[in-house]
Design brief:
The chain is of the alpha/beta class and about 240 residues long. It has 8 helices and 10 strands. The chain has one domain: 4-Layer Sandwich (Purple Acid Phosphatase, chain A, domain 2), CATH 3.60.21.10. A hairpin with a 2-residue loop joins strand 7 and strand 8.
Length: about 240
């Protein structure tokens, strides 16, 4: 198995295209998108249609569900809710149907054990697990609850891997709105080795930042988003 994992696309089409092209060159057998597909970025319809056309399995993130169902928002940053409302206005029934029919998890069986992929936490895409700060027992309890040795947990926008005993959890980072301090699209590749273990590689891919920042400005989306695209972090 050679599996390409993308997450946090956030309606950034040039970043998605760069990620898919890199994964094609890497010869991956399957690509999985682990939410948030939309929110913040200027290309929600194009991103959804590209994923749909490619037949890429997706799980929803919190932003996807808020767009799809117009859920009441908890207290959050103003730009988040502004872009959610704008995104919903850009989508037709075809795209909303796509978001509303996503599975909350995807499972893969590897020679070394089961792998489960989801956004946020197994029960709630809004409840993000901090893989760096979580107590080891919290990680093990989470893996036990999903009966898996491996987990892909999107939500923090920063690539990360953590090993707890025989369990391994990955955050693939963000394709469209990376927050690791370096601009570019984050991609995770998972692959079985000859011993049945799952090997991993994180990729950082450049893309056309200018196109994204131009489109953000053209749609009058919050200016700070262009800075995040250019810098790979929120401005201090």
């Amino acid at each position: 198995m050679r599996l390409g994992i993308i997450a946090e696309i956030h309606a950034n089409l040039p970043a998605l295209e760069a990620a898919l092209e890199a994964l094609r060159k890497e010869g991956v057998e399957q690509v999985l998108a682990v939410g948030d597909i939309v929110g913040y970025g200027p290309h929600p319809r194009q991103v959804i249609r590209r994923l749909d056309r490619e037949g890429i399995p997706c799980v929803p993130g919190a932003a996807d569900l808020r767009v799809a169902y117009a859920l009441p928002a908890p207290p959050r940053e103003g730009i988040a809710e502004t872009t959610i409302i704008w995104t919903r206005e850009q989508l037709g029934q075809r795209e909303l149907h796509f978001l509303r029919n996503l599975r909350s998890r995807h499972r893969y069986d590897t020679p070394g054990g089961r792998l489960m992929a989801f956004h946020g936490s197994p029960e709630d895409p809004e409840n993000k697990i901090d893989l760096n700060e979580a107590h080891p027992q919290e990680i093990l309890k989470m893996l036990e609850s999903i009966r898996s040795r491996y987990a892909v947990v999107a939500g923090k926008h920063i690539p990360f891997r953590r090993v707890v005993h025989r369990g391994v959890v990955f955050d693939p980072g963000s394709v469209g709105l990376s927050l690791g301090g370096e601009p570019g699209a984050d991609v995770l590749i998972l692959e079985d080795d000859i011993h049945g273990e799952v090997l991993h590689r994180f990729l950082k891919l450049p893309y056309d930042y200018g196109q994204v920042t131009f489109d953000l400005a053209a749609w009058e989306l919050p200016e700070v988003l262009a800075e995040v695209v250019r810098q790979g972090r929120f401005p201090q």
